[in-house]
Amino acid sequence: MEKKYYKIEDVSIKTGLTKRAIRYYEDLNLIAPKRTDSGYRLYTDEDIDKIQKIISLKESLGFSLAEIKAALELDKNVKNILSGESADITTIDNYIDMIKEQIKLINEKSNKLLTAKQRFEELLLKLNKLKDQFKEADTI
Amino acid sequence: MEKKYYKIEDVSIKTGLTKRAIRYYEDLNLIAPKRTDSGYRLYTDEDIDKIQKIISLKESLGFSLAEIKAALELDKNVKNILSGESADITTIDNYIDMIKEQIKLINEKSNKLLTAKQRFEELLLKLNKLKDQFKEADTI
DNA sequence: GTTAACATTAACGTCAAGGTTAATGTAAAA
DNA sequence: TTTTACATTAACCTTGACGTTAATGTTAAC
């Protein structure tokens, strides 16, 4: 099957990022699209997936682009090892520790999110009660 | 009971923020400490709690300081209403909608965090299996 | 009473993450 | 074939969130 290629404007529409932002991510070596002979950028579906992943990490985790780069590289290195690339046990242990660290970070954020959510839900509950009182008063 | 007051350096130590950042938050009207006659800032425990809340919102939700200000004001307005401040039903409905919006946002972030976490946990599992294979090979 | 360790404001600097503009090249459509 | 709608790089601009420095005031310790 032939690979489909997208030009930057399509990618911009698909992802919601501006063209400037997409080029900027390339400057930071977060993505590396192919080029036509005349220099136009050509993006595959995998490139677009990666951009979506970047957006998700940015928005949900509040990661900086530098942190995202590190996380993506960790992911890639681990996948290379899993698909057969040679590695010694020390390296593997290192990656295990790094992944555990990421998971720990995510758990901390999750807990904080949960706390914030609960505070808002309490307020919501109380406001709804207040509203009910209003309605009762109207019908008396 | 007498209220205890802290000077900016103590607050800096307690919160981990720099004095510059603490003053900056005041510029943005996120906090409003009292002052001594000579102009020194005086922070109460409640001020410090609020700063901790700001830090938490910043780090977990990735909120900007402007967004944090809006969230804190929403929280304060709702609490004022709940403690007796007069309000009509339209206002209450408005606040209910705003809180629901916040909760929705938080849920979206939670889901993304969960996805990211699962991806890392999968990698961790696979890496641990690989490590076990290494150990078996050693003992043969 | 003076020195050290705090505090203040004001102003300029910095860094990340893009926005914007300019000058120019390429591809597709009329 | 010449617009029109794309694309490119380069360079400077902007905004948020502070850092840093300077000039100066205050308080506590000696």
TrEMBL record, chains A, B:
DNA-binding is among the record's keywords: yes
Cited Gene3D superfamilies: 1.10.1660.10
SUPFAM superfamilies found in the cross-reference section: Putative DNA-binding domain
Database matches in SMART domains: HTH_MERR
Keyword set includes Flavoprotein: no
Top-rank taxon, per record: Bacteria
Regions annotated as coiled coil: none
Keywords linked to the UniProt accession: DNA-binding
InterPro entries: DNA-bd_dom_put_sf, MerR-type_HTH_dom, MerR_fam
Molecular-function annotations in GO: DNA binding
Occurrences of domain HTH merR-type (ranges): 5-74
Annotated PANTHER family: HTH-TYPE TRANSCRIPTIONAL REGULATOR YFMP, REDOX-CYCLING DRUG-SENSING TRANSCRIPTIONAL ACTIVATOR SOXR
Protein name, UniProt field: DNA-binding transcriptional MerR regulator
